[in-house]
Specification:
Number of strands of chain A: 2
Transmembrane segments (chain B): 12-30, 42-63, 75-92, 98-116, 128-149
Order of helices and strands of chain A: HHHHHHHEEHHHHHHHHHHHHHHHH
Strand content of chain B: under 5%
Oligomer: heterodimer
Keywords (chain B): Membrane, Transmembrane, Transmembrane helix
Number of domains of chain B: 2
Protein name (chain B): Tripartite tricarboxylate transporter TctB family protein
Structural class of chain B: mainly alpha
Largest sheet of chain A: 2 strands, antiparallel
Distance between the termini of chain A: 55 Å
Strand order of the largest sheet of chain A: 1-2
Domain DUF1468 (chain B): 15-151
Number of helices of chain A: 23
Shape of chain B: flat
Number of domains of chain A: 1
Shape of chain A: globular
Structural class of chain A: mainly alpha
InterPro entries (chain B): DUF1468 (IPR009936)
Radius of gyration of chain B: 23 Å
Largest sheet of chain B: none
């Protein structure tokens, strides 16, 4: 119950102001098609440098929560999901809007997001300290395997191809080794003076998530997006609450599915929303109405994608393994303040950890309250032409990456990685495992070196890294995640024609 | 072996470049000294090169999903924007000054990709106002609020 002691910290004027700013800004950013939550959080990181660690995390956490919820606005009113997590929301949400129930759909979406989100954060509050204590038993070999696990799980689950996902992870791990070696001071892979200090994580995050999006917008050319927002009629909030209570089953399924999926590292909100929608449809007596503007589908999808947010931070805050790409960016936000997840966070910085977690709980309620009011404005922002969005994001990316260390080298690294990632994405590679490799690389390397020193003084490398219950368990999970994803990939190909594979 | 379509050819070239990087990283890791500093890179590079070569061979044999690739129309659309973005980042920002370069790049990109007709005077006014507003926000955020000192060079 330690979290209760730090509740007051959320309500200091600066902290609460940042929470409000992050929530309202996140709702608007989330509604903008093309601005994913991951990219929004990555672009916000440079603004947190001058803030204290807890304040920075409050801003990033609020933006994370509300961009996911804000994505529902454009999904409902424009049929364009603001974020991948809102794909399932369009199925019934937009149809409701077409039937003249746009306001009701928005109200149901924010209410169910808040219910799911609060449940998810409560899971985060109660599971995190238990797992963090468990993490105390981890030595260098276990931490090394955990870092590898983080990369392989996201590499195999977040990618269409297991091999390409793992290859992206390897590229990230290699990029993390660029610069001067910590122990010997030797130069490693410094091909250009800009790389002398290694690759700055924040510049890399901005480049990997923002620049491919900018180029994708360029690739669409001078096309008029033509998205026209459906005008919404007023709808009493009481009616939406009654409707929500009437659909308890869908809300329960969505909340539970989202929470469980959030706990699995690497599985994002997109999957949570779709799985919850599917499960809710299976258990509903009105399954034929799904897809025709049925509130159950909307409630299940929205409660799931927000219920995923809290649990996705559990593996991050305890074991340094982000549960989603956005959580990986948040890890970058923690590391720039010199804070390492796990026991260090809860033993040495409990104020930072609990103020951040508590702010996410309050943020869910604020998101619900403001979501209903900001929805109209957000729908207007969602109609901003892609050309303007591309130019704005490019400008923010350049200024943001420069401001990290006032170095043009970081801007060059950001642009190079971003352009490279765009082309890699076109061939089925994914940014998430690469980012994980880049973030977890130093953790993996330092524990590998420490472990090899211990090993050389004891039984040798193989017994130290490859024996012991915990080592074997972690290795088994690494192998199982790869095999499972490989099996799923093969199975999906069995149902795909040879021509489609070749395409 | 399947027919050589444009996405497949692009995939072969892309995976070939990744494989070449993998081989170079592996070579450097195993040849550079002191070897202790390259212990971890060697471990990574070994896995990297195996996966990269595997992907390349699969791409050559046509045994893999190749992704969407880039069509000629997409390339035609993105090429001017990408060229302007790269000139802005790698030369203009440092050569002309951050704010001047950003203003020019923002205005050109906006004008290039704006769906509004280029013949309408009103749309040009809109673009100029949008650029001015954006630059005012950027100056307020970075110069005044975050106090980031940006390269000034020839202009500002």
């Amino acid at each position: 119950m330690e979290f209760i002691y730090y509740f007051g910290d959320v309500f200091t004027p600066i902290n609460f102001g940042l929470l409000l700013l992050g929530t309202i800004g996140g709702l608007i950013l989330g509604a903008t098609p093309g601005l994913s939550p991951t990219m929004a959080v990555a672009l916000l990181i440079p603004f947190t440098f001058q803030l204290e660690a807890a304040q920075g995390l409050i801003l990033l956490g609020a933006a994370y929560t509300s961009t996911v919820a804000g994505g529902a606005v454009s999904a409902i009113l424009l049929k364009i999901p603001g974020a991948p997590a809102n794909i399932a929301t369009t199925l019934d949400g937009h149809t409701m809007a077409l039937k003249g129930e746009g306001a009701k759909a928005l109200q149901l979406s924010f209410l169910s997001s808040a219910v799911g989100g609060v449940f998810g954060v409560l899971l985060l509050i109660f599971l995190t300290p238990v797992l963090a204590k468990w993490a105390l038993a981890f030595g260098p070999s276990h931490l090394f395997w955990l870092a590898i696990l983080g990369v392989t799980v996201i590499g195999s689950l977040d990618s269409n191809s297991v091999v390409k996902g793992l290859l992206s992870g390897c590229i990230g791990l290699w990029l993390a080794t660029i610069g001067f070696d910590d122990i010997m001071g030797a130069q490693r892979f410094i091909f250009h003076p800009s790389l002398g200090g290694g690759i700055n994580i924040i510049a890399a995050l901005i480049g990997l998530f923002a620049i491919p999006q900018v180029i994708t917008m360029f690739a669409k050319g001078r096309k008029d997006d033509g998205a026209e927002a459906i005008q919404v009629q007023k709808h009493p909030i009481k009616g939406a609450i009654t409707e929500l209570l009437r659909n308890k089953r869908a809300m329960g399924i969505g909340t539970l599915t989202g929470s469980i999926i959030g706990l699995i590292p690497g599985v994002g909100g997109q999957i949570a929303g779709l799985v919850a929608y599917d499960q809710s449809k299976k258990f509903s007596p009105d399954r034929d109405k799904f897809g025709t503007g049925h509130p159950e589908g909307l409630i299940a999808a929205e409660s799931a994608n927000n219920a995923m947010v809290g649990p996705s931070l559990v593996p991050l805050l305890t074991l340094s393994i982000p549960g989603s790409p956005t959580a990986a960016v948040l890890l970058g936000g923690l590391l720039i303040h010199g804070i390492f997840p796990g026991t260090d966070l809860f033993d040495n910085h409990p104020d930072v950890a609990w103020t951040f977690i508590n702010s996410m709980l309050i943020g869910q309620i604020l998101m619900c309250i403001f979501g209903l009011y900001v929805a109209g404005m957000a729908a207007k922002v969602a109609q901003v032409p892609q050309s303007m969005m591309a130019a704005i994001v490019l400008g923010l990316a350049v200024f943001g990456s420069y401001s990290v260390q006032s170095s043009m080298g970081d801007v060059y690294v950001m642009a190079s990685l971003g352009v490279m990632m765009y082309f890699l994405e076109r061939f089925g590679f994914s940014a998430a495992p690469l980012v994980l490799g880049l973030i977890l690389g130093p953790i993996a390397e330092s524990n590998f070196i420490q472990g090899s020193m211990i090993a050389s003084a004891t039984d040798g490398m193989a017994p130290y890294f490859l024996t012991g219950t915990l080592n074997l368990f972690l290795i088994a999970v690494v192998i199982a995640s790869i095999l499972y994803s490989g099996y799923m990939e093969l199975r999906s190909r069995r149902y795909t024609s040879k021509e489609e594979i070749m395409e | 072996m399947s027919t050589l379509t444009l996405p497949r050819l692009q995939h072969i070239i892309g995976s070939g470049i990744v494989a070449a990087v993998g081989v170079s990283v592996c070579y450097i890791s195993y040849t550079q000294q002191p070897s202790e500093a390259f212990l971890f890179p060697r471990l990574i590079a070994s896995v990297f090169v195996v996966l990269a070569l595997w992907t390349f061979v699969k791409a050559c044999l046509g045994w893999t999903k190749v992704g969407n690739g880039i069509s000629f129309t997409q390339f035609k659309n993105l090429a001017p924007g990408l060229a302007i973005a790269l000139i802005y980042i790698f030369w203009a920002a440092k050569g002309l000054g951050f704010y001047t370069a950003t203003t020019i790049a923002f205005f050109i990109l906006l004008s290039l990709y704006d769906p509004a007709p280029h013949t309408a005077l009103k749309s040009w006014g809109k673009r100029i106002i949008t650029t001015a507003c954006f630059m005012a926000v950027m100056y307020g955020l970075f110069a005044l609020l975050l106090k980031v000192y940006t390269p000034r060079e020839i202009f500002f």
